[in-house]
Design goal:
Helix content: 25-40%
CATH topology: Rossmann fold
CATH class: Alpha Beta
Radius of gyration: 17 Å
CATH architecture: 3-Layer(aba) Sandwich
CATH superfamily: NAD(P)-binding Rossmann-like Domain
Strand content: 15-25%
Number of helices: 7
Strand order of the largest sheet: 3-2-1-4-5-6-7
Number of domains: 1
Number of strands: 7
Shape: globular
């Protein structure tokens, strides 16, 4: 069950953080064909083939850069089977302190970038027998969160994009789903989340009593990317330990 045999994955923003952990986990699935990582040129440390992992430069803030990246993928691979829109940015800031530049910097990567990555991936996905998009959203796509106004708006928009594309592209055999994790532990926030006051304040909202990890999310990715999820599209899968209950 949950076979990923011969599938070609594309993951955005996966040279660090949770995205890198997704790549590390998927690279251990021996029957995957290839994993293509798209990220900012300065974040790509290896442009050579490494255990079927390929790195392509792409700036999600620039539609021309997105178009070029997927054109290169189309020319090199012909098709892709799974697109994971993982790249995202956030800035904890009160709504009254949000400037236009801060708003644009978050929306451009999280929302605009996700949409145009989906759009430019379409010609590659439509060549697959089971094309699949998995958008990484957030629990803040459906609940409020202090100091996260632009971020929450972008993630809610991602869920809306997910549902709309699921409707439009079902006839092309492309499934589109979202995953919405709760606060997740990664290298960039691990020390912060271990501070007693921060940990206590956040964990009181999670009935299961712990933060999310990449392993919690990768299980959902493997399921949604597999043929066992062939009847699942337009869904937002919450991995929140009960926060939104």
């Amino acid at each position: 069950m949950f076979s990923l045999k011969d599938k070609i994955f594309v993951i955005t923003g996966a040279t660090r953080g949770l995205g890198k952990e997704f790549v590390d986990c998927l690279s251990k699935v021996t029957d995957i064909n290839s994993i293509i990582v798209l990220d900012l040129p300065q974040n790509i440390i290896d442009l050579n083939i490494n255990n079927n992992i390929y790195y392509f430069p792409m700036d999600l803030r620039d539609v021309c850069s997105i178009q070029k990246a997927f054109k290169n993928i189309k020319n090199s691979f012909g098709q892709i089977d799974v697109l994971i829109n993982n790249a995202g940015v956030n800035k904890l800031i009160s709504a009254l302190s949000v400037t236009e530049d801060i708003w644009d910097s978050i929306i451009d990567v999280n929302l605009k970038g996700t949409f145009f990555a989906c759009k430019e991936a379409f010609p590659c996905l439509v060549q697959s027998n089971d094309g699949c998009i998995i958008n990484i959203a957030s629990q803040y796509s459906i609940v409020g969160g202090k100091y996260r106004c632009p971020y929450a708006a972008s993630k809610a928009g991602i869920v809306s994009i997910t549902k709309t594309l699921a409707l439009e592209w079902a006839g092309h055999g492309i499934r589109v789903n979202a995953i919405s994790p709760t606060i997740s532990v990664k290298s960039s926030n691990e020390n912060l989340l271990e501070l007693p006051t921060v940990k206590e304040e956040l964990l009181k909202n999670i009935p299961l009593g712990r933060f999310c990890t990449s392993k919690d999310i990768i299980g959902a990715i493997i399921y949604l990317a597999s043929s066992e999820a062939a009847m699942v599209t337009g869904h937002n899968l919450l991995i929140d330990g009960g926060w939104t209950v």
